[in-house]
Amino acid sequence: MIEIANVPLSGLLLKSGFIGTRVMHTSRHPGGVCLHYQHKRRVEYIDPDTRYLVPLSAQTQLIESLASQDQAVTALVSLRGEPALEITRFEQDDPATLQSGEAAAGIAFSGAILAAITFLLGFAFTSTRFPDDVRLLLIGATFSTVLSLIVYASASGELARIHSNTFGRIMKYGNVLSEFGGVLPFLISLPVTYAQASGDPRTTMVLAALLSIGIAWYERSEFSIAHRFRKSFVEVVLMAFTAASPLIGAGVVATGATSWPWTAALACALSGRTWLYLYRRGPEAGTAGRRQWQVRE
């Protein structure tokens, strides 16, 4: 709690990500009040059309403004040479609705990936030239994607028991299994499938190079699962090998070399990354390095 009259300290706290949430009548000075500051631990959005200024001397108006739980002090400005507080209304989200939408999106995405992997696996079984080790890789991808669907369904069931507070942990399992057990094996297997269907090594290598570049870009982007966790040297090496796997696998198949070592290495790399994210990393990093409240555009 900070005295409202303490302008320098209030300005420092507001610039550091704190917000003033309520007025406390605990001042040591007669007639004075204190402002309770709180640091936001998660990102919330504010309505840009509801912000207004209250002079620091208008304590009665300030008390009335902060009586609502969705309004808070977000900045200290100068109004005609007098310090004034910016009052902002925060948007109130419904956690159950947001979690329900996230679970539904996960189920829809994993279902689509499962359909694509199943189609590719069917082609692999009908082709007599398709490598057996790549068939096993696709079978493993099918199994992992089905597991992710089960996990997402379990997360949906947790919505009925939201007090248990395990939704985020369950969704992490589903996200990791879906990406490293389903999406990446499926994408990496595409050049191998094309090599078997076309028999053209040149176009196969071009396709494999494009896929490797795309996977490398995705791994470094903010959209990937890896972006949500801290990285180590071993993990960076595994990421590099995963990105290069389409090019390596296509080259092995196009030249007619034995592909078992490549498949085994890829399976170990993806399994190792899955183990790292599930058991050696904490929760997904959601708001590190970002301001804890933002303006809704």
Name the features.
three-stranded antiparallel β-sheet, 8 helices, 297 residues, 2 domains, alpha+beta
Number of domains: 2
Total count of strands: 8
The quaternary structure here is single chain
Radius of gyration: 27 Å
Our count of helices gives 8
Please outline the major beta sheet: 3 strands, antiparallel
**Parts with pLDDT < 50 across at least 5 consecutive residues:** 286-290
Strand content: 5-15%
Report the order of strands and helices: EHEEEEHEEHHHHHHE
Structural class: alpha+beta
State the end-to-end distance.
Answer: 31 Å
Strand order, biggest sheet?
1-3-2
Helical residues, percent: 55-70%
* Global morphology: elongated
Mean pLDDT: 83
Structure, described:
- The chain is an alpha+beta fold.
- The protein folds into two domains: 2-89, no CATH class; 95-279.
- The chain is 57% helix and 14% strand.
- It has eight helices and eight strands.
- The protein has helices at residues 7-15, 59-65, 95-126, 132-158, 167-198, 201-220, 233-254, 260-279; strands at 2-3, 18-24, 34-39, 44-46, 52-55, 71-79, 82-89, 293-295.
- The chain has a three-stranded antiparallel β-sheet, with helices on one face.
- The longest helix is centred in the middle third of the chain and has 32 residues, at 95-126.
- It starts with a strand and ends with a strand.
- 31% of the residues are buried.
- Residues 286-290 have low confidence and may be disordered.
